[in-house]
Amino acid sequence: MTVAFHPLGVRRDGDEWIVGRVDSGDFVAVPEEGLRAIRLLQDGMDVEEVEARLLRETGADLDVADFVAALSEAGLVAEVGGRPVPSPPPLRPSLPWLRPRHLRWALSPALHLALAVPIAAGAVCLALRPSIFPDWEAAFWSDTGTVVLLTWAAILWLTIGLHELAHLVAARAAGVPARMSLGTRLQFLVAQTDVSGVWPAPRRVRVVVYLSGTVLDLALCGIAVVWAYVAGPHPLTSLVILIQLVRVAGQLLVFMRTDLYFLLQDLTGCRNLYGDGAAYVRHLLRGRHGSLAALPPRERRSVRVYAVLQAVGTVVCLAVAVLVTVPLMLTLVVRAVQSLLAAEDAAGVADALVVLAIIVVPDLLWARVWWRRHGRRVAAVRWLDRWLPRRGRATG
Question: What are phi and psi of 249, to 5 degrees?
Fold first, then answer.
């Protein structure tokens, strides 16, 4: 029985090898014997021949048939015995017309040095003239609330788009078919770029891909600071600086899957720091222990430390949402509705509708994205299914 694989990327990770599909982002860790088995199968040997070859070469009695079955479940196998194996489709890339050959410059150290210049210049300008640093009054630069909200929204989504484009360009330069989409992190609606296929790339490339968006944010902030230093303060310049600094600070919330979380995961050598940390917390809450036994020893300490940060950060973040964010949003919505009902002309109606849209639309998008991802697993549905009679069930 012969086995055909999808195109695979490979890199060493400690005593094991990371093997997987760059086009779908599906990866597994296998030992040396597992990689050797994959190589032999790729050379056209059948399962029985590979098993005998491994036993002769390494003394390892590997059940190659079970190994192939596990790889099939992971989505790495295309055919077994000439028959197609169901597997995840390749990721549909965003901006597919951008080719790696067009974007090699994105991985160039020269570009990284060029981006460091405005960051350093901005830091120097702030040190020389601290008054450039905006306070929260800069956020309310106009007496017209609609103008303030529209300006915030325009700058915010423009810079978010540039941030995600930076990730996509860096990933595509590394040959990864990255895809941009909307997602959720706790109560936050976020734009995100799937760069899972970067796993087999060298660490330097992975770090560039993970940090490209944040570095661009800092560079734009630095340019705005230098402009304010040279040309004097301006409300829009101050607003750009404030928004960029807030967004960069948000990357420090590594208890969520931020850019710096992925950097932390890579530097600690963990493969699923977020998932393993969450599983560890759940086991502790249930009074169980030993949930980390399956992890390599070098990962266990990192997961334990991260799990504490994850639990505390999540509780604090959700508490802020319940105690501050939700009441504030409800207050703003009520006031906008009152303004809409009290409006005496078309301008007043338009003003109230714009405010409502800016406040409500992101929350509706968050709900839609969250439900699309988690809706089927909502515990309440299981509870209802448990208590409500099913259609067609006989009762007495």
Answer: -60, -35
Q: Within 13 Å of residue 210, how many CA atoms lie on the same side as its CB?
A: 22
pTM: 0.87
Q: 256: how many CB neighbours lie within 10 A of its CB? A: 19
Select the more confidently predicted residue: 387 or 303.
303
Q: CB–CB of 35/17 below 8 Å?
A: yes
The alpha carbon of residue 38 and the mean position of all alpha carbons in its chain are separated, in whole angstroms, by 30
pLDDT of residue 376: 64
Residues 6+ apart with CB under 8 A from 200: 9, 10, 11, 18, 19, 20, 22, 27
Contact indicator for 250, 274 with CB cutoff of 8 Å: no
Averaged pLDDT, 198-215 = 95
3-state secondary structure at position 18? strand
Residue type, 289: H
- Residue 21's DSSP bridge partners are 26
Distance CA 354, CA 151 (A): 12
Nearest CA to 359 out of 146, 135, 162 is that of 146
Q: Is 378 helix (H, G, I), strand (E, B) or coil?
A: coil
Nearest one of 190, 197, 245 to 221, comparing CA atoms: 245
| Residues recorded for the chain | 396
Give the residue from 76, 68, 70, 79 showing the smallest Cα distance to 24: 76
Nearest Cα residue to 260 out of 300, 309, 220: 309
Task: Please report which confidence band the pLDDT of residue 377 belongs to, taking 50, 70 and 90 as the band edges.
Answer: low
SS3 label, residue 390: coil
Structure tokens at 212: 């490209």
The kind and range of the H/E element at 180 are: strand 179-185
Cβ distance 35 to 19 under 8 Å? yes
3-state secondary structure of 258: coil
Q: Give residues with Cβ within 8 angstroms of 117, minimum separation 6.
A: none
Helix H, strand E, coil C: the string for 103-148 is: CHHHHCHHHHHHHHHHHHHHHHHHHHCHHHCCCHHHHHCCCCHHHH
